[in-house]
Write a structure and sequence with these properties.
alpha/beta; six-stranded mixed sheet; five-stranded mixed sheet; about 45% helix; flat; GTP-bd; tRNA processing; tRNA modification GTPase MnmE; magnesium; GTPase_MnmE
Length: about 425
């Protein structure tokens, strides 16, 4: 695979569809457009053309995006044609005969990265945007793709360069006798400010990951407390098996739920009791682990089932009295999966609790790579502060901090991330 090739791909959904978008990128893109549609329109202008070399295959809109002002930084072409399976195949066949090849997954985005149109953080944002299912995920991914996190990283890099320059200058001119032995107070203040900024960024990682991955809500309680019925009532679908037989749920089932644009993952768990079989015992073990890892726990108590208190009774636990059509405790959070009573109020309570976990605005810091790089940078800056009188060692610490941030945006050692990242993209992206 080489960027000297001109690549092509269907960038829209699989046909049949109303419209199919075929994307080209590379040095032969303009010539391929001329070959397929005749006169090339002015840059970034849609024009109606007959599509097909010699034989008319379709009629559609075409656009040409000359380098470097294109998504990939290369000459790019888009063909907007009818979404006919046969028509799309015929167009791709003619383009292949002209010398173009089918793109690999994520190859258009990879070329954008290699040509400096995107950094690695923005590429991850684009990947998140393509897979976003909720409004919060869309906002978070778009902010990352648009460069909000990159701007934060660039500010940290600039501060590190200033600090390193101060130390390097002292190292270079220390023998001339005109350099003060102690660093100015402004240097110490800037170093402390950088530590605070990186620490704050790392603290926002938890809320950022929750937006990206979802708020995990464990539905827990004794067997037959109404866990599966509540899952079905909240999701308004029959996704969980409801049975009067105790212990039918053995594994952890995740059910996605969109509440006010935020993803919640409802976890249907085995009932907690002394198990009668090895399979049920494993289900109980997994349930307890899911409860420990959950962001919110709904602990269900039913009037017709012997119940126990949550273990441990933590701040993230909400006690919910189920089967309120049988009994309605005064002053308690009560629901009935049969009549729907209290379901709306419970959803509102989940939204209220969830908002305290995500914050007012989704954090753009949400990936494991972010945590690793920012932790390494913070540790290095803290180390520099501890060795501030040893200029050479402190300067090396700051260099390591800079390198961690450079790796995060892909300016150092990008290959170890690229193949894994781009393989998750669709062919036309």
């Amino acid at each position: 695979m080489t960027s000297r090739d001109t690549i092509m791909a269907l960038s829209s959904g699989a046909p049949p569809s109303g419209v199919a978008v075929i994307r080209l990128s590379g040095p032969q893109a303009r010539e391929a457009l001329s070959f397929m549609a005749g006169e090339v329109p002015p840059p970034r202008t849609l024009a109606l053309r007959s599509i097909g070399a010699g034989t008319r295959l379709d009629q559609g809109l075409v656009a040409f995006f000359p380098r470097p002002a294109s998504f990939t930084g290369e000459d790019c072409v888009e063909l907007h044609v009818h979404g006919s399976p046969a028509g799309v195949k015929a167009i791709l066949r003619q383009l292949s005969e002209f010398g173009l090849r089918l793109a690999q997954p994520g190859e258009f985005t990879r070329r954008a990265f290699e040509n400096g149109k995107l950094d690695l953080v923005s590429v991850e944002g684009l990947g998140d945007l393509l897979s976003a299912e909720t409004e919060s995920q869309r906002q978070q991914a778009l902010a990352r793709y648009d460069g909000r996190f990159t701007a934060m990283i660039d500010n940290w890099r600039d501060e590190l360069l200033d600090l390193r320059a101060e130390l390097e200058a002292r190292l270079d001119f220390s023998d001339e006798g005109d350099v003060e032995e102690s660093l100015p107070g402004a240097f110490q203040d800037q170093l402390a400010g950088l530590v605070n900024s990186l620490t704050t960024a790392l603290l926002s990682l938890s809320s950022g990951r929750i937006v990206r991955e979802g708020i995990r809500v464990a539905i827990a309680g004794a067997p037959n407390a109404g866990k599966s019925s509540l899952i079905n009532a909240l999701s308004q679908s029959d996704v969980a098996i409801v049975s009067p037989e105790a212990g039918t749920t053995r594994d952890v089932r995740e059910v996605p739920l969109d509440i006010a644009g935020q993803l919640y993952l409802l976890l249907d768990l085995a009932g907690l009791r002394d198990a009668d079989s090895l399979a049920e015992a494993e289900g109980v073990r997994r349930a307890r682990r899911a409860i420990a890892d959950a962001d919110i726990v709904l602990w269900l108590v039913a009037p017709d089932v012997e119940s126990t208190e949550p273990e441990p009774f933590a701040s993230n636990v909400i006690v919910v009295h189920t089967k309120s059509d049988l009994a309605h405790p005064v002053g308690a959070t009560s629901v009935s999966s049969v009549t729907g009573e209290g379901i709306g109020e419970l959803i509102a309570l989940l939204q209220q609790r969830g908002s305290t976990l995500t914050g007012a605005e989704p954090s753009v810091i949400s990936h494991e790579r972010d945590r690793q790089a920012l932790t390494e940078a913070l540790d290095a800056v803290v180390s520099a502060g501890k060795r501030i009188e040893q200029w050479e060692l402190a300067a090396e610490d700051l260099r390591l901090a800079s390198a961690s941030l450079e790796r995060l945006i892909g300016r150092l050692d990008p290959e170890r991330v690229l193949d894994r990242l781009f393989s998750s993209f669709c062919i036309g992206k």
